[in-house]
Structure formats: C-alpha cells, structure tokens
Amino acid sequence: MIEHKFWGESVNSFPYEELANLQDCGCSIEFLVPHLDIFFSTIDGYAGSARTLEAIDRQKLLNAQSNLSRSFFEMFPQYGPCRDLLTGADMPRLHRRFVVTEELRLELRQLVDELVGRV
Amino acid sequence: MAADNGPPSPAAKCGLLCRILGWSNNSGNGPAQGRDPIEAGWGVASGQRGGSVLPGILRHEAIRIVRGQLQAAEHTALTSEVDFVNSYAQQLAYRIPFSPIPKPPENTTAQKAASWAGLIAMFAIPEDEGGSLLSRWGSGTWEGEMATEVNIFKHWQEYGESVEATSVEQYLRKSVEFAKNLRGAKSYPIEETVGAGVKVYIKQGRFIIMDAAGRIVSFGKAGI
C-alpha cells in the first residue's frame, strides 16, 4: 500500500516558484532546496521500494529506521521559522509534497520498526 | 502484381512512440530495410550515434515488449497513440520488479505520455558510455534491481527542467559534468541527518548531492 500511495502521486517538477514566499522567514535558505531534496528523496526511495524492505539486511534496516525517525523540521531545525509559512493556500504544491511525504514517512517508520523487531 | 494490402507493418503502426524514440518512416533514419524494425529502431533511438541503446537483458526485454504491444495493437481497439505509449511505458517500467510505475492520470496528454516514456529515453545512451555515466550515480535509498536508474529518473522528473535537461540523458550528462569541477563550491556536510559522508555542494546556482562513496544522488537548481 505504501508503494501504491507513492506511485499514485502525480509527478511534477520542483515548485521553485513557491519558495519565494519563504524569503522573509528570517532563516538562511541558501541550502533549502538540496535539504528538501535530501528529505523528500530519502522517503521517496524507501516508499518506492517498500515491497523490498523486508529483504534488506539488518544494517540497512537500522539506517532506514534512523532516516525515517525525524520529520524535515526535526532533521533541519534551522528552517523552523519557515514552518508557519508553509500553508496549503500560499504554497499548494510544496505543502502537498510535505503532507504526502510525512504520511509515507510515518507508515514506513511503522513498517521498518516491525521489520527490525523481527530480525 | 497486385499491391499487398495486408496489415500495416509494426513500424507503420507506431506513431508518437516512434517519434519519441527517434524513429522516422520518411527521413531515412528509420529502421533499416530488411531488418526487424523493432530491433533496428532501438539502434536508431540513440540518435546518430547508432549502437545498442539498452543494456543486455533490458534491451532484449524492451524489444519483446514492443513487439508484443504492436501485435496486440493489431487485434484490439488500441488505436490511440497516447494509450499506446502509456501502455508501452508502463510495461517497460514493469521491468523494475519492485515498483511498477502507475498508470498516468486519465486525462494524460501526449506531452505527459512522452514524459512517462522518459524512462525509456533514459536508456538511449550507447551501452559503454551509459555504463560509465551511470556508474557516477548512486541509488540513494532506492532498493532492488535498477535502483540507480530509478533514482536518476525520479530526480530528472523533479529537477530536469531546472537545469534545462529535456531528457534523462541530458540530465545524466549535465550532472556528471558538474561533478567534475566542484572547486570553489560551497559545501554542506549533512552526516548528522542522512549518514556519514553525504555532502551537498552549491556552485553557480546549482546543487549536487554526493553520497559517502562520492556518487551523485541528486542534481538541480539551488536558487529560488
């Protein structure tokens, strides 16, 4: 179901135009795009290959558990001031990306926790 | 002797797909006379360079799928070029055993279909060169067969436009070229977030992310 949800999302180019809203948030956003990419694509990889996770070795599972343990703002707390600006009204595409990715992260975390418990 | 009015040849049935793959029935670039048009078409798909475009079993499998699709098209109402391309792209994507690419939205346009077919276009690189280019990329957190290819494809979908790469091949080339000269780039180690050795580099408005082994895992425009 995780894979189905992931692949069912429409694929769009990165919403650069929406990031202009974050220029006034008071934090440095020079590395924001690659940091967002790190977060999104980390979850994407696990979600897109969720079906194979039970076959990977314990070390990779533990890495996955660690990578899935934090939300974007926990992973990159320097962007905390931007959080309130990330609304569906002002940044619909990026907001949607966050919502879906966060749902996938939580589902994946539960799956990986179960798998770690088994091995 | 009467003209043969039998069913159209596979190549003649293939419209948009042929154009995406660079086949042409009129320009002389199309499948060579006397050869299996599908087999020959894969060679033409890599532009003027010729040569094999799909590595090993993938190439074989793609040819098998195209042939099956074309045969099926003659026996069904599968007349829409868009449906044809989508169906084809999905079946080829099914070669990725862990994650079949889903059906595109119902209102898929020809342009979107062409984008979906980007997964196919990705392999339009001569085999040897493709191998060396692909080896510069890592799979990120993707698992399974073709994990690296899927990682590149997904990043192209997201950032290809931002770096003016209209095909996966262009995106791959640009990323590898960018990675060759990172002197003067700003770097940002992020080992505390996604593992030791992962680094982000920004230079001239573009970013690249390298894994601990020095392989590219992402490339795109950095600025807003």
Kindly name the structural category of chain A. mainly alpha
Structural class of chain B: alpha+beta
- Give helix % range of chain B: 40-55%
Low-confidence stretches of chain B: 1-65, 69-88, 90-124
The number of distinct helices of chain B, counting runs of at least 4 residues, comes to 11
Order of SSEs of chain A, N→C?
HHHHH
Question: What can you see in these coordinates?
Answer:
The complex is a heterodimer of chains A (119) and B (224). Chain A is built from 5 helices and no strands. The model of chain A has no long low-confidence stretch (mean pLDDT 88). With 119 residues, chain A is mainly alpha-helical. Helix content of chain B is 45%, strand content 9%. Chain B contains 11 helices and 4 strands, in the order H-H-H-H-H-H-H-H-H-H-E-H-E-E-E. In chain B, strands 1-2-3-4 form a 4-stranded antiparallel β-sheet. Mean pLDDT of chain B is 59; it is low at 1-65, 69-88 and 90-124. The chains are: A mainly alpha (119), B alpha+beta (224). Chains A and B meet through helix 1, helix 2 and helix 3 of A and helix 9 and strand 4 of B.
Task: Please specify the SSE layout and strand pairing.
The complex is a heterodimer of chains A (119) and B (224).
Chain A: H1 2-8, H2 32-48, H3 58-67, H4 72-75, H5 92-118
Chain B: H1 10-13, H2 16-21, H3 37-44, H4 56-75, H5 81-93, H6 110-116, H7 118-121, H8 127-134, H9 147-159, H10 168-180, E1 186-189, H11 191-194, E2 199-203, E3 206-210, E4 216-221
Antiparallel strand pairs in B: 1-2, 2-3, 3-4
Helix pairs in contact in B: 4-5, 5-6
Summary, kept brief:
By secondary structure, chain A is mainly alpha-helical.
Task: Name some characteristics of this structure.
heterodimer, A: 119 residues, mainly alpha, 0% strand, B: 224 residues, alpha+beta, four-stranded antiparallel sheet, disordered N terminus
